[in-house]
Design brief:
Helix content: 10-25%
Enzyme class: ligase
Family: Belongs to the CarA family.
Distance between the termini: 59 Å
Strand content: 25-35%
Order of helices and strands: EHEEEEHEHEHHEEHEHEHEHEEEEEEH
Number of strands: 18
Shape: globular
Bound molecules: glutamine
CATH superfamily of the largest domain: Class I glutamine amidotransferase (GATase) domain
CATH architecture of the largest domain: 3-Layer(aba) Sandwich
Protein name: Carbamoyl phosphate synthase small chain
Pfam families: CPSase_sm_chain, GATase
CATH topology of the largest domain: Rossmann fold
Structural class: alpha/beta
Pathway: Pyrimidine metabolism; UMP biosynthesis via de novo pathway; (S)-dihydroorotate from bicarbonate: step 1/3; Amino-acid biosynthesis; L-arginine biosynthesis; carbamoyl phosphate from bicarbonate: step 1/1
Radius of gyration: 20 Å
Number of domains: 2
């Protein structure tokens, strides 16, 4: 019950709704699920990607009436209600998705109970809500205090991870590889980064328009200048794009789901990957570009629409991807990217 606003976007994931709801990159978005049955496995205490639900609204066709799973603690409806998140069901999500695909992601409102009024009043409220273009949101979702995720097993490396809206699985995937991860606030300085004496620096995913991320871009340039091994995911890829001098732009309706085909152009292999992005980097696909940090190339591309899905520097140890190798939720095809980061750090030590 209540009212809510946000940018309406659709996700094609058939599973993984808990990870979607709790991904900070969905802050200020109303997520429409294309899969008709959502909530079948209830809500557990293990799968959230952060401490709370971040979507501003949730749209499903047919919520499970009887969730069933050995890990389930409560129903999706109970969880949304407990966290005060407005959801709506019984919607023809296929028609709504086609509308968003034809007209593009757009601001919407969901109204119920006392919030319901005449159409003109509701439309005016939606139009008064902020656009996603120009939104600077990392500061609203990122940690205020630095914290450490310890390495699992023997510690091999230290990484400084800039939290722009990080998902919990990302430091976990690094910890599994013997990395001690120092998660730093979005406002961290180069001094904060080098105070942890890192073997590598990571820039996370996050909500909002990358064109507003001036501080992370300046910070990344400082890291590139020192040639510290660098890895970025999603927002981190857009920030690398900007740090190299490329532009970013808003996609018509974005990529969201766990079944997106991406080609790694360095090996030719195709991987099925998890995505959640509404913006993309504008970089030439055909040949490497000269940048202030040496040559850079587009390392990964989406096979549905040729959108840039990864960048790689040829003269410095830095790369990034626009999608989600941490695979929460999603297929594990892209897990090798964390190993590539480890190789870069090993190379720097040799
Ligand atoms: N998951 C992300 O990091 C998303 C990045 C950015 N906010 C976008 O929508 O493109």
């Amino acid at each position: 019950m209540g009212e809510t606003f946000g940018e309406a976007v659709f996700s094609t994931g058939m599973t993984g709704y808990q990870e979607t709801l709790t991904d900070p990159s969905y802050h200020r978005q109303v997520v429409v699920m294309t899969a008709p049955h959502i909530g079948n496995t209830g809500v557990n205490d293990e799968d959230p990607e952060s401490k709370r639900i971040w979507v501003s609204g949730y749209v499903v066709r047919d919520p499970a009436r009887t969730p069933s799973n050995w890990r389930s603690r409560r129903s999706l409806d109970e969880e949304l209600t407990a966290q005060g998140v407005v959801g709506i069901s019984g919607i023809d999500t296929r028609a709504l998705t086609r509308h968003l695909r034809e007209r593009g992601a757009m601001r919407v409102g969901i109204f119920s109970g006392a919030a319901v009024a005449d159409e003109a009043t509701l439309l005016a409220k939606v139009q008064a809500a902020p656009q996603m273009e120009g939104a600077d949101l990392s500061g609203e979702v990122a940690t205020a205090e630095a914290y450490v995720v310890p390495a699992i097993g023997t510690k091999r490396f230290t990484v400084a991870a800039i939290d722009l809206g990080i998902k919990g699985m990302t430091p976990h995937r690094m910890a599994e590889r013997g990395i001690e991860v120092h998660v730093l606030p979005a406002t961290a300085t180069a001094e904060d980064i080098y105070a942890v004496d890192p073997d590598g620096v990571f820039f996370s995913n996050g909500p909002g328009d990358p064109a507003t991320a001036d501080h992370p871009v300046a910070l990344m340039r400082a890291v590139l200048e020192r040639s510290t091994p660098l890895f970025g995911i999603c927002f981190g890829n857009q920030i690398l794009g900007r740090a190299l001098g490329f532009g970013t732009f808003k996609l018509k309706y974005g990529h969201r789901g766990i079944n997106q085909p991406v080609q790694d152009r360095t090996t030719g292999k195709v991987e099925v990957t998890a995505h959640n992005h509404g913006f993309a980097v504008d970089a030439p696909l055909d040949a490497p570009s000269d940048t202030p940090f040496g040559r850079a190339e587009v390392s990964h591309v989406c096979l549905n629409d040729n959108v840039v899905e990864g960048l790689r520097l040829l003269d410095r140890p830095a790369f990034s991807v626009q999608y989600h190798p941490e695979a929460a939720a999603g297929p594990h095809d892209a897990a090798y990217l964390f190993d590539r980061f480890v190789s870069l750090m090993e190379g720097q030590r040799a």
